[in-house]
Amino acid sequence: MNHNYTTLLKKLNLFIREYYKNQILRGTIYSIIGLVSTLIVLAVIEHYGFFNGFIRSLLFWSYLACSIIAFVWFVLIPLFKMLKLAERLTHKKAAQIIGKHFGNVSDKLTNILELSDIEKGNVEIINASIDQKIQEIELTPFHHAVDWKKTLNYGKYLLVPIGVVVMLFLSGNKDIISESTHRIINYKIDFIKPAPFYFKLTSDTIEVVEKDDIKLNLEIFGNERPKEVFINYNNKIKKLKKLSPDQYSHTFKKVQNNTSFYFFANNELSKEYNIKVLSRPEIQNAVLTITPPKHTNSSQQRLENLGAISIPEGSHVRWRIKTLHTDSIRFRINNLNIPVKAMQNNDYAVSKTLLTDSEYTISLANAHAQFTDTTFYNIKIVKDAHPHIQLESSNDSDINESLISGLIRDDYGFSSLIFYSEIM
What one-character-per-residue DSSP string does 249-293 give? Predict the structure, then answer.
């Protein structure tokens, strides 16, 4: 094989290499356009369809299969052919491709290759003919037959899917791509379909002191707004008060038990919330022991209520108060604090001698309520009146004597009378 022919084959091999480089680049552009466009389509379908795990698995594996096929067909196979790891273009096929670009070269190049295949005949004549034809085409740039310009021109179509993605991100709709793609990739995970709006309270658990009212403020956020919002608790349904398109409220009156509830509107349900009732300090039982002054000769009284009462002036009153859920107690008489003695857990005692009408208050406290409930009571004092003595004097002339008589009165009676007189 002469030198000219060897040079020609090297030029053909370089052309074949450039041809496959061009195929690899074009295949890469095709793959990116196709796969990005397919991804956008699948993401949009999933965004509006919000499919279950089975459908999402089909989308995932279908896309993965398409990606593998596109990579293998458009990139990997041309790469293997370029590296001579797979069957590639023959010199004759390359000559045909070059001939499409350079019309006057096609026949000559084909004849050269055909002459080189002739095994019989005069070798010198054949080589001379080959050299002549090679000289006629040796200045032809075979690599120009590789249309790089056309391949690069396909790159402008990349702007279409990329532009769509950019527009979605700039318009604030990136979730159409990002969230949908995330769900497709994680098809084994169960996702909850986003609601058109959501319910929001400040806390999942609300605490309230027993028998107090509690007001709930609900916020609605999302893409839509319901016309009405309802609350369900204790198998009761109540309509919330609308403050604004985004704000609603509801008040629980005198809550006594732990309560679970949830909100709903337009077939959308909130999660379940809980009201936790905190213990309120309260008086369980109260006993008043009233000890009147000794001179009244009145017996000790025991009253099991804290209502308005009347007692003799100077009586000693002792309160024994049993409470529930109480940490401390405040006892005031006529705006003065009276020391309270803790007898035992939730059991207290107070005592006081009363001389005037009195008003007293009892307030309880614990960790949840600080002297919030104050109860007022009245005690009326029955004054101890002074004894009343009425005297009358009469003279008896027959016996020359004076007779003194009279009337003695006292509200509690008297035990003795001493009469003093002076004879003039």
Answer: EEEE-S--S-EEEEEEETTEEPPPEEEEEEPPPEEEEEEEEEE--
Distance CA 379, CA 357 (A): 6
Helix (H, G, I), strand (E, B) or coil at 219: strand
- Other Cβ atoms less than 10 A from the Cβ of 374: the count is 11
Dihedral, CA of residue 43, residue 45, residue 46 and residue 50, to nearest 10: 160
Between the two ends of the chain, the Cα-to-Cα distance in Å is: 186
- Is the backbone of residue 224 left (phi > 0), alpha (psi -120 to 50) or beta? beta
Rounded Cα distance, 363 and 370, in Å: 9
| Cα-based angle 212, 218, 223 (whole degrees, multiple of 5) | 175
User: Which residue matches tokens 């056309």?
Assistant: 150
Is 319 in contact with 349 (CB distance < 8 Å)? Answer: yes
| Distance from C-alpha of 228 to C-alpha of 222, rounded to nearest angstrom | 15
Question: Nearest to residue 391, comparing CAs of 372, 367, 402, 407?
Answer: 407
CA–CA separation, 147 vs 137, rounded Å? 20
Give, in degrees to the nearest 5, the angle at Cα 101 between 98 and 107.
Answer: 55
pLDDT, averaged per 10 consecutive residues of the chain (424 residues), comes to: 63 81 91 92 91 92 94 92 84 70 58 50 48 54 73 88 89 86 91 85 84 92 90 93 92 93 90 92 91 86 85 92 91 92 88 92 90 87 78 66 70 69 65
Residue of 305, 313, 321 lying closest to 377 (CA atoms): 305
Residue 171 tokens, joined: 């318009």
204: region left, alpha or beta (phi > 0 left; psi from -120 to 50 alpha)? alpha
pLDDT in tens, 11-29: 777 878 888 899 999 999 9
